[in-house]
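Protein modeling request. Please complete all fields; requests missing the sequence field cannot be processed.
Requester role: graduate student
Desired output: 3D structure, token encoding
Chains: 1
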Amino acid sequence: MNTVQKALREACRAQGFRPVAEAVGVSTDFLYKVIGGSKQPSPKVLTYLGFERLWLYRRIKPQSPAPTTAEP
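Delivered output (72 residues):
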């Protein structure tokens, strides 16, 4: 379970699913699906929890330098 799912689960445990769903503007079914992992959290859910979505690319292993060609 990722950080967003855990935060949403804790919010729903503390306040109840219906109040959280109403505050966010989504259905309780949607919240269950996000917590269960079958749906991605919407921007509304992320904002409510204080998260933002980032896309990140990073190299996981070193790359060999590109071969150079010598011109005559």
